[in-house]
Amino acid sequence: MPILVTGSTGHVGNSLCRALISQRRPVRAMIRSTSNLRALQNLEVETVEANLLVPESLEQAMEGCDVVYHAAGVYETWTANPELEIIQPAVEGTRNVLQAAKAAKVKKIIYVSSVVAMGGGTTFDHGRGPEDWFSDPALPYNIAKTRSEQIAHQLSETLDLPVIFVLPGLILGGNDFRVTPSTSLISTFLRGRIPFYFDGAFTVVHVDDVVQGMLKAEAHGVRGTRYVLGGEQITVLELFDHLAAMTKRQTPGLRLTDTSGKFFAYPMKWIGQAFRTHPLLTPEFVKDHFGKYYNFDSRQAREDLGYEYRPLLRVLEDTINWLIRRGIVPDNIRVVENT
């Protein structure tokens, strides 16, 4: 039976399709009428057109499927209409996907959330984990991920659905054809367009490690459980230091605090709204990420699933080389290979 992958043209989705194909499993890739299919080019997948906000189309897409990987979602930190473009598709889309899965008698659902749904700690050693939730997100993407996962938990109980939750960290690596905000962070740094840093931390993970964690969650995961799929835990400044050393770029010397960050963020947002451009900072991003630490541990995934992740420098190498191959950053940045 085919395995349905929603969000199949996204960074995680197309990488998952590739991994499933390598296992010789039939893949049904869900696309939209407006999808750019470049990420699926030359892949042996069956494509099916459906819309997260049209329940009937989802039921048709799931017909004959035992397993659904729900990886669809709008990964943007800013749009002109975030409620309509980011939050609603995530929240209502989740509701529709799970209700369609119930109707289609799907046997297992792997739900892709994010570590942001747990909310960041206020120190590097914050101790937060899968039992925690982001109580007051401001950034539209964070709102979307938190609300939609909460709805997924509620529906998995009321509809008696076998849902397993995976929460990746900051995902990097190749095959990011649309350039997510995570990859854009790296490309913007490499082009010398990030003049500051802020206190905070990530768990940085390669997309292929996330995908292997998802496959292991399907095989060994416990329904209702939240599995963090992360990698090495580093601060924002450490990330920039590594990139600077690998590419001979310079680490930003300006440290922005919550107060100074908002001082710059408000006019940047106003300019973005006026000229329909993507601001480097928004007040919502400052509120959710300045002084917030999203360096979560993947211990439960390692213990329950046998999850593993590659070293940070290898993740950064692959990301930089992907950006060079795509022509997004210049080819003379001189990557220092990690040996």
Biggest sheet overview:
7 strands, parallel
The tally of strands reads 13
* Broad structural category: alpha/beta
Low-confidence stretches: none
Assigned CATH architecture of the domain at 3-178 and 203-233 and 295-310: 3-Layer(aba) Sandwich
The outline comes out as: globular
Q: What proportion of the residues is helical, as a percent range? A: 40-55%
How big a fraction of the residues is strand?
15-25%
Taken in chain order, the helices and strands follow as: EHEEHEHEHEEHEEHEEHEHHEHH
As a whole number of angstroms, the C-alpha radius of gyration is 19 Å
Termini separation comes to: 42 Å
What is the CATH H-level superfamily of the domain at 3-178 and 203-233 and 295-310? NAD(P)-binding Rossmann-like Domain
* Main β-sheet, spatial strand arrangement: 3-2-1-4-5-6-10
Total DSSP helices? 11
The overall average pLDDT, rounded, is 96
CATH class of the domain at 3-178 and 203-233 and 295-310: Alpha Beta
Enter the CATH topology name of the domain at 3-178 and 203-233 and 295-310.
Answer: Rossmann fold
Features:
Rossmann fold; alpha/beta; seven-stranded parallel sheet; four-stranded mixed sheet; 339 residues; single chain
Structure characterization notes:
The protein is α/β, with parallel strands linked by helices. It has a domain at 3-178 and 203-233 and 295-310: Rossmann fold (3-Layer(aba) Sandwich), CATH 3.40.50.720. 42% of the residues lie in helices and 16% in strands. It contains eleven helices and 13 strands. A seven-stranded parallel β-sheet has the order 3-2-1-4-5-6-10, sandwiched between helices. β1, α1 (11-22) and β2 form a beta-alpha-beta unit. The longest helix has 22 residues, at 82-103. The protein is globular.
